[in-house]
Design goal:
alpha/beta, five-stranded parallel beta sheet, about 40% helix
Length: about 140
């Protein structure tokens, strides 16, 4: 049986590497999520992680088109500097807030709406992998 896997942050370096690996696996339907509108296509969706309604609408569409997702790899992040310490020192307060909204708030909302369906005895298990990768 094919598993439905959602990968956020698919437009970044790590996300593109992960997506290439996952695409080579059998029995996996990969749905990629990015904030980069230019990368949107049939299996890549643009979602605004700072807006809960954008995340809610994404999950409604996925459930309608593909059914209940099985796996979420939460890899979305904004970081414009190589090292996290450089990012903190060199960024404006507004940029730090925007990064927090995407990296924390958006990621938590993605988990919430991924798990949102009420479980019953016949529901399958769900897997959440939350990636936090930073150079300090």
């Amino acid at each position: 049986m094919t598993k439905l896997l959602i990968l956020t942050g698919s437009g970044g370096y790590l996300g593109s590497k992960l997506s290439n690996k996952i695409l080579g696996l059998n029995d996996i339907k990969l749905i990629k999520v990015t904030s980069n509108k230019s990368l949107t296509n049939k299996d890549t969706y643009n979602v605004n992680f700072k807006r809960s309604n954008s995340i809610i609408q994404f999950f409604k569409k996925i459930r309608k088109c593909y059914g209940e997702p099985d796996v979420l790899i939460n890899n979305a992040a904004i970081n414009t500097e190589k090292k996290f310490s450089d990012f903190i020192i060199n960024s404006s307060d507004k940029r730090i807030l925007e990064t927090y909204l995407v990296n924390s708030f958006g990621s938590l909302l993605f988990i919430k709406y991924f798990l949102k369906k009420k479980p019953n005895n016949n529901d399958k298990k769900k897997i959440v992998i939350n990636l936090l990768t930073r150079n300090v």
